[in-house]
Amino acid sequence: MPQITVIEHLLYHQKESPMATGRFTRLLSEMILSGKIINQEVNKAGLVEILGLTGETNIQGEKVRKLDEFANQVLVHRLQQAGVLCALASEENADLILVPEDCPRGDYIIIFDPLDGSSNIDANVSIGTIFSIFRRISTGEEPVTLNDVLQKGARQVAAGYIIYGSSTMLVYTTGNGVHGFTLDPSVGEFLLSHPDIKIPERGKIYSVNEGYWHYWDQATRNAVDYFKNPDNDSKRVYRSRYIGSLVADFHRNLLYGGIFLYPADTKDPACSHGKLRLMCEANPLAMIVEQAGGMATDGINRILDLQPKELHERVPLVIGSKLDVLQVEKFMRAGA
Ligand code: AHM
Ligand code: MG
């Protein structure tokens, strides 16, 4: 396979993708550079004890920041100077971030989780940056409002993630298939390694935190039970795999086929609609999985059709191979 970088790939497919404009290319370039910067810091995570604890000044006289704060600062700083955004929203910031009037601005809005799964950092587990891109609804003359941002996921113009794992990968879609690029550290470029990713129609993996079993409703328990003994057919076996890092669990299931569930539960009133966020986690992964031939629902409804009411709204997430997601839907409808 010839070595093709992300930007070359985007430009090459310019004719097919309305997103391959110079402006979008600029935005993606900033995302790529941010990802490389975050990657460098993530690779040093185990050295924090040696170089200094978070909040302290390290041996080089630099203030040591928590990695998720660091990732957030890098993304906000780099993306807002791309000149193509009017607003940004991050899982780490309560409110919308408007691009200052004295900065060049554009029509795009980006919503991101800067470092998903960051509670796993100390155990050297894969973590990731997830992003979702929209075009504002109002015209560029008017000030951006939350209404410009609270759009259904179906209106996303692009979505992707960077996974910091055994290798670092960028996976993204502009609505024209899903493509994966692996960072070659020797040249510092993301090179096309997984063109046109398709998720198997039925998977062999189910991923859910079964420690919450007692906090689920009966329909959810029935759905998860199914994967332990599918169709009462002892020959078909699902494997249980749960990392507890959404990007890593999703990425594995995307490549191998499988289903990830984070249902609603009663363990925490804040999670009565699940733990994951609609706008910065569920929507972008839902766009990716659909582009790869899979499905994403809240158990019953398509994620991309949900109208967000607030920026940090949470949603139950059932995502992965189509037949597995449909199977869960049957149990959820029966129990509704
Ligand atoms: P975070 O955005 O604070 O990192 O939380 C989201 C993470 C996901 O990566 C993962 O799927 C989930 O939390 C795991 O939660 P739990 O430990 O409840 O299973
Ligand atoms: Mg997260």
Automatic annotation (TrEMBL):
EC numbers: 3.1.3.11
Functional pathway: Carbohydrate biosynthesis
Required cofactor(s): Mg(2+)
Residues annotated for Mg(2+) 2 binding in this entry: 113, 116, 281
Residue intervals of the Fructose-1-6-bisphosphatase class 1 C-terminal domain: 199-332
Keywords attached to this entry: Carbohydrate metabolism, Cytoplasm, Hydrolase, Magnesium, Metal-binding
One Gene Ontology cellular component: cytosol
Uppermost EC category: hydrolase
Domain Fructose-1-6-bisphosphatase class I N-terminal: 5-195
Superkingdom classification of source: Bacteria
Catalysed reactions, semicolon-separated: beta-D-fructose 1,6-bisphosphate + H2O = beta-D-fructose 6-phosphate + phosphate
InterPro entries xref list: FBPase_C_dom, FBPase_class-1, FBPase_N, FBPtase
Quaternary structure (record): Homotetramer.
Family statement: Belongs to the FBPase class 1 family.
The name this protein goes by in its record: Fructose-1,6-bisphosphatase class 1
Gene: fbp
